[in-house]
Amino acid sequence: MLPSEKFLAAFRSNDEAPRTLVERAYLSLRHDIVCGALAPGERLRVEHLKDRYDVGAGTLREALSLLLSDALVTAEGQRGFRVTPISLADLEDVTNTRVLLETEALRLSIRHGDAAWELALVAAFDRLSTAERTPESLRSGAWEHANRGFHEALIAGHGSPWSRYLLGILYRHAERYRYIALRAAAATEAGPPRDVHREHEDLFRAAIGRQEARAALALEVHVRNTCEVLKKAGLGAM
Where does the HTH gntR-type domain lie (predicted)? Predict the structure, then answer.
């Protein structure tokens, strides 16, 4: 994957067929980091991972270098790579930055989106609603795929490659924490369950109704809720 192609990979799904061995390794590693199969802070040993991902050492190092630019791995000089650690402070920073960029991108998308944008947004919301009605979709990854598509459709009317690229990186980091939030919600019975579908519906209706301020507020509430779920689950010392 060339550096310039990372603009196109911002919301790229692991379901899409990779075009090169480097891209295959990159997408596989990214998926395993985001979902927690490779734990935060875990050392990434090339000699072990090349067998796990069935690629050569050179290919794997190229993939890890791409993940450096996504801030999903860190380099340790001559000692190799590690999965980027997680913390509540990092989650708050990711959340605040995402709110800042994504709400503005949404406002501009609502302002400039055409009829094709509206049709694509309706289709994305319908797919997400179907996934939310299917419990199996959480385990299979179908919900995450539909959720990613919905957020992409919301800002698609803006059309800025830089916004898409930067928000794609932030989205992946937020996704890491969502997996933690899902596990935390399953492990605790404190408080009422989060109505994610209602959050998405409020956001969709405001966006499709061209209500910029209401849509931006709904998006901010939605994005911040994951951070609040983790705090309520007692992960402040994470």
Answer: 19-86
What's the confidence (pLDDT) of residue 194?
Answer: 78
pTM, two decimals, is 0.85
Distance separating alpha carbons of residues 101 and 163, to the nearest angstrom: 7
Q: How many residues does the chain have?
A: 238
CA distance 10 to 35: 17
pLDDT at residue 141, rounded to an integer? 80
**Lowest mean pLDDT segment, chosen from 14-23, 28-37, 60-69, 186-195:** 186-195
Report the pLDDT value the prediction gives residue 43, as an integer from 0 to 100.
94
Where exactly are the structural domains of the chain? 3-83, 88-232
Domain 88-232 coded CATH 1.20.120.530? yes
In which order are the strands placed within the sheet that holds 43-44? 43-44, 81-83, 73-75
Find out whether 215 and 222 touch, Cβ atoms under 8 Å: no
Fold of 3-83: Arc Repressor Mutant, subunit A (1.10.10)
